[in-house]
Design goal:
The chain is mainly beta. The chain has 2 helices and 10 strands; from the N terminus they run H-E-H-E-E-E-E-E-E-E-E-E. Strands 1-2-3-6-7-8-9-10 form an 8-stranded antiparallel beta barrel. The protein has a two-stranded antiparallel sheet with strand order 4-5. Strand 8 and strand 9 form a beta hairpin. This is Outer membrane protein beta-barrel domain-containing protein. It comes from Hymenobacter artigasi.
Protein backbone atom coordinates (compact mmCIF):
# COMPACT_ATOMS: atom_id res chain seq x y z
CA UNK A 1 0.00 0.00 0.00
CA UNK A 2 2.84 2.36 0.81
CA UNK A 3 4.56 1.76 -2.51
CA UNK A 4 1.33 2.41 -4.39
CA UNK A 5 0.79 5.70 -2.64
CA UNK A 6 4.31 6.83 -3.41
CA UNK A 7 3.85 6.04 -7.11
CA UNK A 8 0.61 7.92 -7.29
CA UNK A 9 2.16 10.87 -5.49
CA UNK A 10 5.02 11.04 -8.02
CA UNK A 11 2.60 10.86 -10.93
CA UNK A 12 0.47 13.67 -9.47
CA UNK A 13 3.52 15.86 -9.06
CA UNK A 14 4.58 15.28 -12.69
CA UNK A 15 1.14 16.22 -13.96
CA UNK A 16 1.14 19.35 -11.81
CA UNK A 17 4.56 20.38 -13.17
CA UNK A 18 3.47 19.87 -16.79
CA UNK A 19 0.32 21.90 -16.24
CA UNK A 20 2.40 24.79 -14.97
CA UNK A 21 4.63 24.93 -18.10
CA UNK A 22 3.89 27.98 -20.34
CA UNK A 23 2.21 27.25 -23.66
CA UNK A 24 4.03 28.79 -26.71
CA UNK A 25 2.58 28.63 -30.18
CA UNK A 26 4.94 27.18 -32.78
CA UNK A 27 4.69 28.41 -36.39
CA UNK A 28 5.72 25.88 -39.01
CA UNK A 29 7.05 27.30 -42.28
CA UNK A 30 7.38 25.41 -45.49
CA UNK A 31 10.86 25.57 -46.93
CA UNK A 32 10.95 26.25 -50.70
CA UNK A 33 12.83 23.69 -52.75
CA UNK A 34 15.49 25.13 -55.11
CA UNK A 35 14.19 25.57 -58.64
CA UNK A 36 15.84 23.73 -61.50
CA UNK A 37 18.05 25.92 -63.67
CA UNK A 38 16.65 26.92 -67.01
CA UNK A 39 18.07 24.79 -69.91
CA UNK A 40 20.98 26.45 -71.63
CA UNK A 41 22.01 25.88 -75.25
CA UNK A 42 25.41 24.24 -75.56
CA UNK A 43 27.40 24.32 -78.80
CA UNK A 44 28.53 20.81 -79.67
CA UNK A 45 31.31 20.51 -82.23
CA UNK A 46 31.13 17.09 -83.87
CA UNK A 47 34.39 15.25 -84.31
CA UNK A 48 35.61 14.24 -87.75
CA UNK A 49 33.75 11.23 -89.02
CA UNK A 50 35.83 8.37 -90.41
CA UNK A 51 35.97 8.53 -94.19
CA UNK A 52 34.50 5.53 -95.98
CA UNK A 53 37.12 3.16 -97.32
CA UNK A 54 36.23 3.75 -100.96
CA UNK A 55 36.33 7.56 -100.65
CA UNK A 56 40.13 7.47 -100.74
CA UNK A 57 40.12 5.85 -104.18
CA UNK A 58 39.74 7.40 -107.63
CA UNK A 59 39.81 6.14 -111.21
CA UNK A 60 41.73 8.28 -113.73
CA UNK A 61 41.86 8.28 -117.54
CA UNK A 62 44.37 10.48 -119.41
CA UNK A 63 45.68 10.62 -122.98
CA UNK A 64 47.55 13.02 -125.23
CA UNK A 65 50.35 13.65 -127.72
CA UNK A 66 54.03 13.22 -126.91
CA UNK A 67 57.23 14.62 -128.38
CA UNK A 68 59.64 11.68 -128.43
CA UNK A 69 63.21 10.90 -129.43
CA UNK A 70 65.96 8.35 -128.84
CA UNK A 71 69.52 8.79 -127.67
CA UNK A 72 72.14 6.86 -129.63
CA UNK A 73 75.52 5.58 -128.49
CA UNK A 74 78.31 4.56 -130.86
CA UNK A 75 77.72 1.18 -132.44
CA UNK A 76 80.35 -1.55 -132.27
CA UNK A 77 81.08 -2.52 -135.86
CA UNK A 78 81.66 -6.24 -136.50
CA UNK A 79 85.34 -7.10 -136.88
CA UNK A 80 84.78 -9.06 -140.10
CA UNK A 81 82.89 -6.27 -141.82
CA UNK A 82 84.57 -5.09 -145.05
CA UNK A 83 81.56 -3.63 -146.84
CA UNK A 84 81.40 0.14 -147.40
CA UNK A 85 78.98 2.20 -145.31
CA UNK A 86 75.48 2.74 -146.64
CA UNK A 87 75.17 6.18 -145.07
CA UNK A 88 77.49 8.88 -146.33
CA UNK A 89 78.13 11.78 -144.02
CA UNK A 90 81.77 12.90 -144.15
CA UNK A 91 83.44 13.80 -140.89
CA UNK A 92 80.71 12.40 -138.63
CA UNK A 93 81.68 9.65 -136.15
CA UNK A 94 78.02 8.76 -135.67
CA UNK A 95 76.15 9.72 -138.86
CA UNK A 96 72.84 8.18 -137.81
CA UNK A 97 72.61 10.34 -134.70
CA UNK A 98 73.10 13.51 -136.73
CA UNK A 99 70.36 12.59 -139.19
CA UNK A 100 67.63 11.65 -136.69
CA UNK A 101 65.07 14.15 -135.45
CA UNK A 102 62.34 14.06 -132.75
CA UNK A 103 58.86 13.05 -133.86
CA UNK A 104 55.32 13.14 -132.53
CA UNK A 105 54.14 10.09 -130.58
CA UNK A 106 51.27 9.45 -128.21
CA UNK A 107 50.43 8.11 -124.77
CA UNK A 108 47.36 7.00 -122.81
CA UNK A 109 46.82 5.64 -119.31
CA UNK A 110 44.05 4.36 -117.06
CA UNK A 111 45.08 4.27 -113.41
CA UNK A 112 43.68 3.80 -109.92
CA UNK A 113 44.72 6.43 -107.37
CA UNK A 114 44.86 5.98 -103.61
CA UNK A 115 44.99 9.00 -101.28
CA UNK A 116 47.48 8.30 -98.48
CA UNK A 117 47.07 11.53 -96.50
CA UNK A 118 46.78 15.27 -96.83
CA UNK A 119 49.63 15.48 -99.34
CA UNK A 120 50.67 12.00 -100.51
CA UNK A 121 49.06 9.69 -103.05
CA UNK A 122 49.90 6.50 -104.93
CA UNK A 123 48.63 5.43 -108.35
CA UNK A 124 49.13 2.45 -110.66
CA UNK A 125 47.49 1.15 -113.79
CA UNK A 126 47.87 0.24 -117.43
CA UNK A 127 48.93 2.40 -120.38
CA UNK A 128 50.05 2.66 -123.99
CA UNK A 129 53.00 4.62 -125.35
CA UNK A 130 54.30 5.21 -128.84
CA UNK A 131 57.81 6.60 -129.31
CA UNK A 132 58.92 7.84 -132.70
CA UNK A 133 61.76 9.56 -134.53
CA UNK A 134 62.35 10.62 -138.12
CA UNK A 135 65.44 9.67 -140.06
CA UNK A 136 66.79 11.02 -143.37
CA UNK A 137 68.96 8.42 -145.12
CA UNK A 138 71.18 9.28 -148.07
CA UNK A 139 71.92 6.29 -150.24
CA UNK A 140 75.26 6.68 -151.98
CA UNK A 141 76.40 4.53 -154.93
CA UNK A 142 79.98 3.22 -154.79
CA UNK A 143 81.96 1.54 -157.53
CA UNK A 144 84.46 -1.19 -156.65
CA UNK A 145 87.31 -1.79 -159.14
CA UNK A 146 90.34 -3.98 -158.51
CA UNK A 147 89.44 -4.22 -154.84
CA UNK A 148 89.42 -0.45 -154.59
CA UNK A 149 86.45 1.77 -153.74
CA UNK A 150 86.15 4.59 -156.22
CA UNK A 151 84.69 7.97 -155.27
CA UNK A 152 80.91 7.92 -154.85
CA UNK A 153 78.62 8.45 -157.78
CA UNK A 154 77.17 11.97 -157.76
CA UNK A 155 73.71 10.44 -158.14
CA UNK A 156 72.38 9.76 -154.63
CA UNK A 157 68.97 8.88 -153.22
CA UNK A 158 67.56 10.45 -150.05
CA UNK A 159 65.11 8.35 -148.02
CA UNK A 160 62.97 9.86 -145.26
CA UNK A 161 61.79 7.32 -142.72
CA UNK A 162 59.74 7.41 -139.52
CA UNK A 163 60.75 4.90 -136.86
CA UNK A 164 58.09 3.93 -134.32
CA UNK A 165 58.18 1.83 -131.16
CA UNK A 166 54.95 0.84 -129.42
CA UNK A 167 54.71 -0.33 -125.81
CA UNK A 168 52.12 -1.49 -123.30
CA UNK A 169 53.13 0.11 -120.01
CA UNK A 170 52.48 -0.50 -116.32
CA UNK A 171 53.05 2.90 -114.63
CA UNK A 172 53.44 3.36 -110.86
CA UNK A 173 53.49 6.93 -109.55
CA UNK A 174 53.96 8.59 -106.16
CA UNK A 175 52.39 12.04 -105.88
CA UNK A 176 52.80 14.98 -103.51
CA UNK A 177 50.24 17.79 -103.79
CA UNK A 178 48.84 20.98 -102.30
CA UNK A 179 45.33 22.42 -102.26
CA UNK A 180 45.35 25.97 -103.62
CA UNK A 181 41.64 26.69 -103.11
CA UNK A 182 38.38 24.84 -102.73
CA UNK A 183 38.57 23.44 -106.26
CA UNK A 184 42.21 23.58 -107.39
CA UNK A 185 44.98 21.20 -106.41
CA UNK A 186 48.51 20.94 -107.84
CA UNK A 187 51.33 18.52 -107.25
CA UNK A 188 54.40 16.62 -108.43
CA UNK A 189 54.65 13.05 -109.70
CA UNK A 190 57.55 10.61 -109.82
CA UNK A 191 57.77 6.91 -110.42
CA UNK A 192 58.71 4.02 -112.67
CA UNK A 193 57.05 1.91 -115.31
CA UNK A 194 57.53 -1.42 -117.01
CA UNK A 195 57.28 -1.16 -120.82
CA UNK A 196 56.47 -4.24 -122.89
CA UNK A 197 57.42 -3.89 -126.57
CA UNK A 198 54.48 -4.86 -128.82
CA UNK A 199 55.68 -3.78 -132.26
CA UNK A 200 56.82 -0.97 -134.49
CA UNK A 201 58.95 -0.21 -137.53
CA UNK A 202 62.61 0.77 -137.61
CA UNK A 203 65.71 0.81 -139.78
CA UNK A 204 67.29 -1.66 -137.36
CA UNK A 205 64.69 -4.38 -137.70
CA UNK A 206 63.06 -5.74 -134.57
CA UNK A 207 65.80 -7.32 -132.44
CA UNK A 208 64.64 -5.61 -129.24
CA UNK A 209 64.30 -6.34 -125.57
CA UNK A 210 60.76 -7.47 -124.89
CA UNK A 211 60.56 -5.69 -121.50
CA UNK A 212 62.20 -2.39 -120.59
CA UNK A 213 62.25 -0.32 -117.40
CA UNK A 214 61.56 3.40 -117.45
CA UNK A 215 61.61 6.32 -115.02
CA UNK A 216 59.19 9.25 -115.11
CA UNK A 217 58.86 12.71 -113.61
CA UNK A 218 55.98 15.12 -114.02
CA UNK A 219 53.43 17.49 -112.54
CA UNK A 220 49.67 17.56 -112.24
CA UNK A 221 46.83 20.04 -111.86
CA UNK A 222 43.31 19.10 -110.74
CA UNK A 223 40.09 21.07 -110.91
CA UNK A 224 37.10 19.71 -108.99
CA UNK A 225 33.77 20.12 -110.75
CA UNK A 226 30.59 21.22 -108.99
CA UNK A 227 29.44 17.81 -107.76
CA UNK A 228 32.76 17.01 -106.09
CA UNK A 229 33.08 13.52 -107.61
CA UNK A 230 34.57 14.49 -110.99
CA UNK A 231 37.87 16.29 -111.57
CA UNK A 232 39.52 17.64 -114.69
CA UNK A 233 43.11 16.47 -114.81
CA UNK A 234 46.32 17.61 -116.54
CA UNK A 235 49.55 15.60 -116.17
CA UNK A 236 52.57 16.71 -118.24
CA UNK A 237 55.01 13.83 -117.83
CA UNK A 238 58.55 13.09 -119.06
CA UNK A 239 59.65 9.44 -119.37
CA UNK A 240 63.07 7.90 -120.07
CA UNK A 241 63.60 4.21 -120.76
CA UNK A 242 66.60 3.11 -118.72
CA UNK A 243 67.01 -0.17 -120.62
CA UNK A 244 68.54 0.03 -124.11
CA UNK A 245 66.11 -0.89 -126.85
CA UNK A 246 68.26 -3.21 -128.98
CA UNK A 247 69.70 -6.38 -127.49
CA UNK A 248 72.29 -6.95 -130.26
CA UNK A 249 75.56 -5.13 -129.52
CA UNK A 250 76.60 -4.10 -133.08
CA UNK A 251 73.45 -1.95 -133.15
CA UNK A 252 73.33 1.54 -131.73
CA UNK A 253 72.23 1.42 -128.10
CA UNK A 254 68.96 3.37 -128.17
CA UNK A 255 67.31 4.81 -125.10
CA UNK A 256 63.86 6.18 -125.83
CA UNK A 257 62.56 9.26 -124.05
CA UNK A 258 59.80 11.80 -124.50
CA UNK A 259 57.45 14.30 -122.93
CA UNK A 260 53.68 13.75 -123.02
CA UNK A 261 50.89 16.29 -122.47
CA UNK A 262 48.31 14.05 -120.78
CA UNK A 263 44.78 15.40 -120.28
CA UNK A 264 41.76 13.60 -118.87
CA UNK A 265 39.35 13.15 -115.99
CA UNK A 266 39.31 11.54 -112.55
CA UNK A 267 36.29 10.05 -110.78
CA UNK A 268 36.40 9.86 -106.97
CA UNK A 269 34.58 6.87 -105.52
CA UNK A 270 31.92 7.67 -102.87
Amino acid sequence: MASTSLAQLAENRQRTAQAQLPVRPVALQQVAWPRAAAPQSVAVVPGPLPRPFASRWAVQVVAGPALTYRSLNTAAAPASSTSPPLIYSPGSPNPVATLERPALGSAAQITVRRTLGEHWSLSAGLGYAEYASTLALQQVHYTVSNHMILPPDPATTTIHRRDTYRFVTVPVRVGYGWTLSGRWRVGLLAGAEAAVYVGGSSTEGSIYHRVSLGASLGAEARYRLGGGRWELLAQPTATYLLSPLANYTPYYQRHLFGGAALLGVAFNLP
